[in-house]
Amino acid sequence: MKKSRIFALCFLIVCLFSTAVLSADEVKLTIWGRDIPDDSADHAYVHALINGFQAKYPDVKIDYIALGDPGLADKTKITMATGSGLPDIFQTWGGSVMGGYADAGMLFDLTNELKGIPCSDAARQAMTWKGKIYGVAPFFAVAGIFVNEGIFKANNLKVPATIEEFDKVCDALKAKGIQPFACGEKDKWPALALYMYLTNRYGGDASAKAAARQIPYDSDAFVKAAQLYQSWIKKGYFGATPLGEGYGDAQQLMATGKAAMHITGSWMCAQYANSEFTDQTIGFYAFPAFKSGGVGTVNDIMGQTDIGFAATKVAASKKDAVVKFLKYAMSTEACEAEPGRICSVPGVKAKSSLTAQAAAVFATAKTVTFWWDQDLPPSVTSPLNDMLQTFFLPGADVKKSLSSFEALCVENIGPVKK
Amino acid sequence: MRMRREQSAGRGRSSSRVHYGMSEIIITIVLVVLAVITIFPLVVPLLFAFKTQLEFAYHPWAIPEALRWNNFAEAWKAVRIDQGLLNTLIVCFGSILCTIPSAVLAGYVFARYRSRVTEILFYAILIGYFVPVQMVLVPLYRMEVSLKMNDTLYGLFLPMAAFGIPFWTLIYRSFFKSLPRELAEAASIDGAGHTKTFFRVMLPLAQPATVLAVLQVFMGAWNDYLLSLILLSDQNKFTMQLRVASFLNSYGTDRMPRYAAAVIISALPTLILYLVGHRWIIKGMLSGAIKE
Amino acid sequence: MEIVEGETSCAGKKKHKKKDRNRSVFIFFCILPAILFLVIFLYYPIEETFRLSLTKTTGLSKEVFVGTDNYQRLFHDEEFFAGLKHVFSWAFWSIVIQLPLSFFIAFSLTYYSNRFTRPLQAVFFLPNVLPSAITAMLGKFVFAPNYGLIVSLGKVLGWKWLASIDFLGNPNLAFWAIFAIATWAYSGFYVIYLMSRIEQIPRELREAAELDGASMWSYARRIVLPELNYPLRILAVLCTVGSLKLFDLPNMMTTGGPGNATVTLGITLYRHGFINWNYGKAAAIGVVIFVLSLVFTILQFSLGRKKDEAI
Question: Could you list the residue range(s) of the whole structural domain that residue B161 is in?
Answer without folding.
Answer: 80-251
